[in-house]
Design brief:
Helix content is 34%, strand content 20%. It contains 10 helices and 12 strands. α1 crosses α9. The chain is globular, with a radius of gyration of 21 Å.
Amino acid sequence: MKKIGILNGKERSFPEAFVERVNSKNIEGIIAEPVKIDKIMQGEGSGYAVIIDRISQDVPFYRAYLKNAALCGTAVINNPFWWSADEKFFNNCLSTKINIPVPKTVILPSNSLPVDTTGDSFSNLAYPLDWEGIFNYVGFPAYMKPFAGGGWKSVYKLTDKQDFFEKHNQTGELVMMLQEEIIFDEYYRCYCIGGKYVRIMPYEPRNPHALRYIADFKPDEERTSLMTDIVLRINHYLGYDFNTVELALKDGIPYAIDFCNPAPDAERASVGEENFEWVVETAATFAIEKALEQKDGQDNLTWGEYIKRSAAKQKLF
């Protein structure tokens, strides 16, 4: 019997519906359940063929558990090694190399010194930074947000230089990105599962949270095709099995705004019934595919094109 597990925190509607959906398909030799952990021994398997990870970004203990499980052959969705290494600024940097339009973005050192450092720890950092060069590049209005992490925590809209310095003084040890504002005509949030299943959802981030999936626009066939290509290209390079990509359309050009969301919101109350049904059914289908393909003792993780191409170059020497 191959087990598919889901590892989650406070989230309830998606994990419960996912387990029920997998089991309702009655695939011989496949069963789904919430992950149960009572001990973790180094180099010993988890007992799961597949685990969908919805919480390890917030719980380092779980991330360590998943790495050990993957080492022993579990297909973890998403790859915990890559997820540990990835962050939003790198995503933007990579996009500039694979022809994905993104807002002009810079990364900033934290406003407060990190724990266990002093000013001497930053002898390679110019002081002051070239603020004029930074502001001329990004422009105002702009957004400032953490370079890693998800959601809308610690996100600031900035009107000018003075506003920037006032808000940056509130960010403590967070490493922030300063990003050009894209004044968009339409905005979309796009699920991508398995590197092949895409759901493009009209999304209005200026609405209250509960109303963001209610929008008065939808893409035509040409825009759907264009956005689908961008979503697939991003996820193929990053290697995510389960992710969302946010696209802001300005003058018909989709700008990738936020696409490091490996545990994206999938709650029924947030995304609406139709989107919820799609993500439950598609996640269940993909998890079953992975379970049927999974082989004990082998690497069953998904690795993105960025890593695979780098590894292939190393083999030449």
